[in-house]
Fold:
Amino acid sequence: MRMAFLGLGAIGRPMAGHLARAHTLAVWNRTAARASEFAAAHQARAARTPREAVLGAEVVLTCLPTSAEVEALLDGPEGVLAGLAPGALFLDCTSGDPASAQRIGARLAAAGVAFADCPVSGGTNGAEAAALTVMVGSDAATFERARPVLACFGKRIEHLGPIGAGSAVKAVNNALLAAHILAFGEGFVALAKAGVPVRKALEVINASSGRSFVSEGLVPDRVLTGAYPKTFRLALLDKDVGIAVGFLKSQGVAGPLLSEVSRLMHEARAALGEGGDYLEAIRLQEERAGVAIRGS
Ligand code: NDP
Structure:
């Protein structure tokens, strides 16, 4: 099929790489050099504008920081709507917000384009391995059209309800991730200060009921080593927790715990800047406590 992918960031790039192997792909990226590099490496076509990328495409995929950037790409003489033909399918893999997804879906429907919000989980490693979990919000017919496309980079692809449902589930997922990160950091900084051998403590907890994806899947390689590789910007996780808190409010749920997680993530974002990695929230906790978790 003829496809277009817009947004070759940390996770978009490997996702687009899988599509390029199976389909005829045009790519667009705000920083044009990244699109050219990608095109050269993957036999894809680098487009100069969003309109040029989507011209003639049967399927368009986006993966941008927030829904606001996706909405902004729709308009203008070089925007997506200027190039997209009726009958096309638009899959937004951004971790966006449910209300924006519904608005984007309505605008595309008016142009005869089917839409699904399809945020992903699994990180850059999962994207490289084509093993992402994809959370889809759409009508049933659109989901059936989207599934084989999403299967190029997704392992578990779930239809969760109408447009917006994928974004809502993703936001709650990432709010839980943020809560686990902050709670892990608080507990382990205290254990390190107390002189408890943290490696052993981690092994014990990972064989007990307090274990989580953070403690099992992330801490051993990234925190205990002190490596803190940059894979997912904390600014994006902060955005996700904010979406979750907004979603709770929209349902009349107070959410005192996730509101506090959101406040702490804002604080960490202010301290680390826009480029900090999400696990560096733990590095900040180490700094504040004057103790390194890995060192004990
Ligand atoms: P990055 O910050 O690495 O990349 C962002 C992409 O969006 C880049 O292509 C960037 O272009 C582009 N972009 C930024 N601002 C604009 C703009 N105003 N107009 C057009 N394009 C813009 O983000 P990720 O790839 O990490 O994340 C993308 C989405 O996927 C986010 O919603 C994130 O929450 C989600 N996600 C990320 C995961 C990860 O592990 N990284 C995991 C799961 C979900 P440029 O190259 O010019 O900067």
